[in-house]
Design brief:
This protein folds into two domains: about 35 residues; about 130 residues, Ctag/Cox11 (Pfam 04442). By secondary structure, it is of the alpha+beta class. The longest helix has about 35 residues. The chain contains one helix and ten strands; from the N terminus they run αββββββββββ.
Length: about 200
């Protein structure tokens, strides 16, 4: 018995198929946009303790002081020693401060890493402004290399007007370096010992 030909798709079936296709395309687009959007949102609002980026210091300074503590960590598989030159300092709100960190590559080969960062309490992220920071770029250290790195920052005096942060007396600035993948070797025409077949 011959198979019956399938009936043509109805207009409703075609509309459902198009809607499903558009939904899938929209979900894929949203997945690609989620990470940059989340990063932008965190930088703009200070959400999750994300600090702000400033190009210059604030217009003024007030006598209100806070203690800023410095925390340093390295992620798994990264043979670096990473530490601040001082564990904490006391600063005035609006005071531009420069602090130093030291990092040592204890491996016998070059390694690249990038620092993730945040501040706690998480609500002060929108008031903690970095003018310069090693965390803005990937860091590459040669075998055994020691490097001094600086952070220039201030805490915005407007923090005292925020009911959630007006009584904050201690802020912790935390960094964690994470190893970056090793670069793939670049073909430079050097013989590899393998036979070439033509």
């Amino acid at each position: 018995m011959a198979a019956q030909p399938s009936p043509p798709l109805s207009r409703r079936d075609k509309m459902v198929a198009v809607a499903c296709g558009l939904t899938v395309a929209g979900m894929i687009g949203a997945a690609y946009a989620a990470v940059p959007f989340y990063n932008w949102f965190c930088r703009t609002t200070g959400y999750a303790g994300t600090t702000q980026v400033a190009t210059a210091g604030p217009s003024g300074m007030i006598d209100r002081k806070v203690t800023v503590r410095f925390d340093s960590n390295v992620g798994p598989g990264l043979p670096w020693r990473f530490e601040p030159e001082q564990n904490q300092i006391e600063i005035k709100l609006g005071q531009v401060v420069t602090v130093h960190y030291r990092v040592i590559n204890e491996a016998a080969r070059p390694i690249s890493a990038t620092a993730a960062y945040n501040v706690t309490p998480l609500t002060v992220g929108s008031y903690f402004n970095k003018i310069n920071c090693f965390c803005f770029t990937e860091q590459s250290l040669k075998a055994g290399e020691t490097r001094e790195m600086t952070v220039v920052f201030y805490v915005d005096p407007s923090m005292v007007k925020d009911a959630d942060n007006a009584d904050t007396s201690t802020i912790t600035l935390s960094y964690t370096f994470y190893k970056q993948p090793d670069p793939k070797p670049v073909a430079d025409g050097t013989p590899t010992g393998r036979k070439q077949i033509y």
